[in-house]
Write a structure and sequence with these properties.
alpha+beta, Butyryl-CoA Dehydrogenase, subunit A, domain 3, Nuclear Transport Factor 2, Chain: A, 11 helices, 15% strand, globular
């Protein structure tokens, strides 16, 4: 019995060590995995599900004693996550077929350092969120990526955003390098035709966003007409659970009058506007009491900084991760100050390092 007990305890210790090692490796790569999958799916909740599946696969392999044989855990985890995301795409597409109105990516709140933060804090934030505060995950680009095939999008994200070579992507997706190059070429041309590379100055975007929100919610039709590009498009995502337009609205006059009418008749009596970074861009997060009411992101013209696209997410399911004071820039203003109001997991541990939906992973 003593010998059996020693063997049992030794196996238990070995298993615990393997679990700790597997957890440490996974947590070390979790931010990368989150960024890759979110760029592929545009949904925080689906991304977290894919990461859970990736963790389970990784933990099972590690418990099987094969973890030490993986020379490149990063490549192995990315391969699992990317293919799990592609497999999930079919069910996502089925959901989209019955979705009410335009579908927009789930907003991802990203933190920017407060003005009083130390230089070290600024650098730490930059390192932690570099993949979440640039063009790669902007709302505008994610909308364009929705028009790609799942494979084209995966190749674009891996190559253009994360710098993977075509040969590395070929190994991840189980395809030839020549096939990957063709997919990359088609995806890049498709994206550039719809969204030329242009990085708006963050300060300018912040100022235009504030003016736009004040004019929209304050009922200032003249200011709206001055801010909007002639061919502006308004995308509203209420998912059938919040009042929104069932189709994109195009044209300066139509968009301005729709926003003016909505502000006059449909808004709750008390709203709080908080300016934060959403998908890397300065944006407005609107609260009604303690509950998130809407996330508003604007995209600007490269030549004159007119508003060319407005992305308005009001679907409460997509706002569950948005909280008062979360990731704020310290710049908050009440509406009153901005104008008149007219599979079974067994005993495998749960996913380590899981963040709340809406938080940067």
């Amino acid at each position: 019995m003593t010998g059996r007990l020693i063997v049992t305890e030794t196996l238990a210790q070995h298993r615990a060590t393997a679990d700790d090692r597997a957890t440490e490796v996974f947590v070390g790569h979790r931010e990368l995995l989150f960024s890759v999958v979110y760029n592929m799916l545009g949904s925080v909740s689906d991304t977290e599900d894919v990461l859970q599946e990736t963790w389970l696969a990784w933990a099972r392999r590690s418990r099987g004693g094969l973890g030490d044989e993986i020379d490149n855990p990063r490549a192995y985890l990315v391969r699992i996550a990317v293919n799990q995301a592609l497999a999930r795409q079919a069910s996502i597409n089925r959901r989209r077929e019955t979705y009410v109105g335009p579908w927009l990516p789930e907003p991802l709140i990203t933190r920017t350092p407060d003005a009083q933060d130390s230089a070290q804090a600024v650098l730490a934030t930059d390192a932690a969120e570099s993949a979440l505060r640039n063009e790669s995950v902007s709302m505008a680009l994610l909308v364009v990526l929705e028009t790609l095939t799942p494979l084209e999008r995966a190749v674009f994200v891996l190559h253009e955003v994360f710098g993977y070579a075509h040969t590395e992507i070929a190994e991840i997706l189980g395809r030839s390098a020549s096939a990957i190059r063709q997919l990359a070429h088609r995806a890049r041309e498709h994206v550039q035709a719809r969204r030329p590379r242009y990085q708006t100055d963050p300060y300018v975007q912040q100022q235009v966003t504030e003016r736009f929100v004040a004019a929209s919610l304050g009922g200032d039709l003249c200011e709206l007409m001055d801010l909007l590009a002639p061919d502006v498009t308004l995308w509203t995502d209420g998912g059938g659970k919040a009042r929104s337009a069932l189709r994109p609205v195009q044209g300066r006059d139509k968009v301005a009058r729709l926003l003016n009418g909505y502000a006059s008749t449909q808004l709750p009596e008390a709203l709080d506007i908080q300016y934060r970074h959403v998908n890397g861009d300065p944006s407005a997060v609107v609260f009604s009491g303690d509950s998130p009411y809407a996330v508003m992101v604007v995209d600007l013209d490269a030549e004159n900084d007119h508003v060319t696209d407005i992305y308005l997410v009001t679907n409460p399911d997509k706002l569950q991760g948005v909280r008062q004071g979360q990731g704020g820039t310290g710049h908050e203003a009440p509406l009153e100050a901005r104008g008149p109001q007219d599979g079974g997991a067994g005993d495998i541990p749960t996913l380590p390092g899981a963040a709340d939906p809406g938080a940067a992973g």
